[in-house]
Amino acid sequence: MIGTVLALGGGGFSMSDDGSSAIDDHLLDLTGRSVPKVCFVPTASGDADTYAQRFEAAFAGRAKTSVLSLFCNEPWGCTDPQMLLDQDVVYVGGGSTANLLAVWRLHGLPALLEKAAAGGTILAGISAGMNCWFSSSSTDSFGPLAPLDDGLGFLAGSACPHYLGEPGRRESYLGWVGAGVLPGGYAVDEYAAARFVDGELVEAVCERPDRPVLRVERGHDGATETPVAVRNLRPAS
Description:
This protein has 237 residues and is an alpha/beta fold. It is built from six helices and 14 strands. A hairpin with a 2-residue loop joins strand 12 (213-219) and strand 13. The protein has helices at residues 22-31, 49-59, 97-106, 109-118, 128-131, 169-179, and strands at residues 4-10, 37-41, 64-67, 89-92, 122-126, 134-139, 146-148, 155-160, 185-188, 192-197, 200-206, 213-219, 222-227, 230-232. Strands 3-2-4-5-1-10-11-14 form an eight-stranded mixed beta sheet.
């Protein structure tokens, strides 16, 4: 069974002006360690240097950070992906879901990530880093939004990040689920995240108010949305 997966529809350090994020703080707390080992995997962005550098700055001093660059970018170089088995958190960045999946499969990451998760490593990610864990998803990997039925399948069903944050996300996802093009799944807005344990949703959180997480299923007259209770990590004082 896959252990814990934290799926971010948006938010985290990469959508923060100063790198601070209540969702990222929550992720570190989930490890139960004072200084957890966190590996950032920026494959979906083509291992963009600035993305990895922002990660290192955001987690400096509160985690033992590393970056797995499958493109062998400096200063990280070519690292054996087996290092994923020694992490408390694997944090996957956003970008192209389709490219991420293709590169990961060439490097044998799916089996390694499954083994790491079974051993207690928390799998997390934003946008493409959310999509990858599900069986299918809504993606802009090919330009226009399109359904992608090619995920890892660690989590059953489909995923849609940026649900209300990007034009067309909600409408297209509802259309695909309603027509049976994609199976039912979870829609997660920006600055919100859904936590799964052994494949089951156990909690939804947000770092800004009124950021929904919804269960989307096919009904008789199209797709239906069922709101999930969301805990605000930054409640109003």
